[in-house]
Amino acid sequence: MHDTGEPGEGHNSIPKGWLLFFFGVIIFLVWYIVSFTPTISGWSFYRGFEEEMAKAVPAASQSPGTPDKYSGQPAAIAEGKAIYAESCAACHNADATGGIGPNLTVTLKYGSTAQDIYESVANGRPNGMPPFMQQLGKERIYKLVAFLESVKK
């Protein structure tokens, strides 16, 4: 409203760098939405996860050994005792005579063979026994099985 000849805001233009940035962000967002929206591209995090897990299963199943491979080996039993103390004693007591969980020194509900014990520890059982495969792995469970076999009456 006052024409003083001084530059006003109406005379300013947006810097070219900001325009490039603005349009670059718009292009990136359009690309991102097209690439990662499942209904548009078919991409799925879960599909990628399942493919990775499918590749990992054969590699994990190729490791040699059976649950009784450490039976009677004092070093493995000692290591299994340490694993028991850190992972199992809270529910089954330090001497494996039962607490929250059942007594492990007698015949067990789901079987007392090395394979049965391995299955119980690795995959868990209904009504309270959680699976420990992720935390312990096969070798540590094998040593735990050796220890549990050594405490049976």
Structure description:
The termini are far apart. This protein has helices spanning 16-36, 38-41, 45-61, 74-87, 89-92, 114-123, 133-150. The protein is mainly alpha-helical and 153 residues long. 58% of the residues lie in helices and 0% in strands.
Characteristic terms for this protein:
elongated; mainly alpha; 153 residues
Helical content, roughly?
Answer: 55-70%
* Beta strands, count: 0
Q: What would the principal axes of the Cα set say about the shape?
A: elongated
From the helix content, strand content and strand pairing, which structural class follows? Answer: mainly alpha
Radius of gyration: 31 Å
Query: In this structure, how is the largest beta sheet organized?
Result: none
**Tally of alpha and pi helices:** 7
Termini separation: 101 Å
How is the topology of this model organized?
Elements: H1 16-36, H2 38-41, H3 45-61, H4 74-87, H5 89-92, H6 114-123, H7 133-150
Helix pairs in contact: 4-7, 6-7
Task: Give a short overview.
With 153 residues, the protein is mostly helical. The protein has helices at 16-36, 38-41, 45-61, 74-87, 89-92, 114-123, 133-150.
